[in-house]
What we know:
The structure is a single chain. The chain is mainly alpha-helical. 55% of the residues lie in helices and 11% in strands. It has one domain (8-127): Arc Repressor Mutant, subunit A (Orthogonal Bundle), CATH 1.10.10. It starts with 20 loop residues before the first helix and ends with a helix. The model has no long low-confidence stretch (mean pLDDT 90). It holds the Pfam family HxlR. InterPro entries: ArsR-like_HTH (IPR011991), HTH_HxlR (IPR002577), WH-like_DNA-bd_sf (IPR036388), WH_DNA-bd_sf (IPR036390).
Amino acid sequence: MVTTSSESQLPSSPYRADCPTRRILDRIGDRWTVLIVGALWDGSARFSELRRRIEGVSQKMLTQTLRALERDGLVQRTVYPEVPVRVEYTLTEAGRTLREPLRALEEWSITHLSDVSASQKAYDRAAS
């Protein structure tokens, strides 16, 4: 997104520190959000299933991110009154609208991985 100086002065511009859209961008730009939305792409999942799908996420981060996504209306948490209690997470209608943009970012990162890695190595060599 390219912005002009006049656009950055609009009240709804994410380039302004006080703009509420910045909090939304922080949420959807978070790596755990991207991975959770991807893991819920095809439907509901339990917490333990999400943890297995998303290698490296801690229980604490998964819990915090799921709560934040639920608060933002992007994920729905459903508790089933069974013994033991079963809890499932699924994308809401708003959450499902994120799938395509985030999938595009995922595909971009896969496509450009070797270029980015080569640039990082070249930068690190030049810096040392």
